[in-house]
Amino acid sequence: AIASIYYAVIILVGLGFANGTKILIGRRNGEKRYAEIGVLFEQSIYFLLFLTIVLFFFLQQLTPYILKLIIHSDGVRIACTNYLIYRAWGIPFVMMAMAFRSFYIGIASAKALAWSTGIMAISNAILNYGLIFGHFGLPAMGMTGSAIGSAIAECIGMFYLLFFTVN
To answer: By CB atoms within 10 Å of each CB, which of 31, 49, 55, 158 scores lowest?
Structure first.
C-alpha cells in the first residue's frame, strides 16, 4: 500500500499536465481549430517524455533515500524500494497513455479509452496473478512480480492506444 501510494503521487505530476492538455485540446476542438490539436498533442508528448526521464530517475535513484527517512522497518522499506524500482519501468507507458487520453477526451471520443482500460485491467489481473503466485509458467515473484505485471499491463494499454490511433 505504501509503495502504490508513493507511485501514484509521482504519477500525479504527469496527470496534472495531461489534464491541462486535455482542456486545451477540447477548446481547440470546440473552436474547430483542428490543426492546432495535433500541435498540442505533439508538444504534450515531448513534455511528458522529458517528465518521464525526470520521474524515472527520481524513482530509481532517490526513492531509496526518501523511503529510508519515512519507513523505519527494514523489511518493509526494502520491499517498497524493490517494488518501486521495477514499477518505474511503467512510467514511460503511463505518460504516453496520458497524452493519448488527453487527446481522445479533448476530441470527445472515448471509445479507444474504454477498450484500452479494459485491455490493461485484464492483462494486469492476469500478469499480476501469474507473476505474484507463479502461475501460467511464470516465476513466483511476490511483490516484485506485481510491479512487473503492472508495468507490462501499462505498456499493453499504451500500445493499444497507439495501434488504435495509427489505424
So the answer is: 31
Q: At what angle do helices 34-57 and 2-30 cross, to 10 degrees?
A: 160
Residue 55 to residues 43, 49, 96, 100, 146, Cα–Cα distance (Å): 18, 10, 13, 19, 20
Tell me if the pTM is above 0.85: yes
Q: How many Å apart are CA 99 and CA 87, to the nearest integer?
A: 19
Q: How far apart are CA 88 and CA 10, in angstroms?
A: 10
C-alpha separations of 111 from 60, 107, 117, 123, 129 in Å: 34, 11, 10, 18, 27
Half-sphere exposure of 50 (CA within 13 A, CB side): 6
Q: Is the pLDDT of residue 127 over 90?
A: yes
Cβ within 8 Å of residue 82, ≥6 positions away: 143, 144, 147
- The number of CA neighbours under 13 Å toward the Cβ of 39 is 7
pLDDT the model gives residue 100 = 96
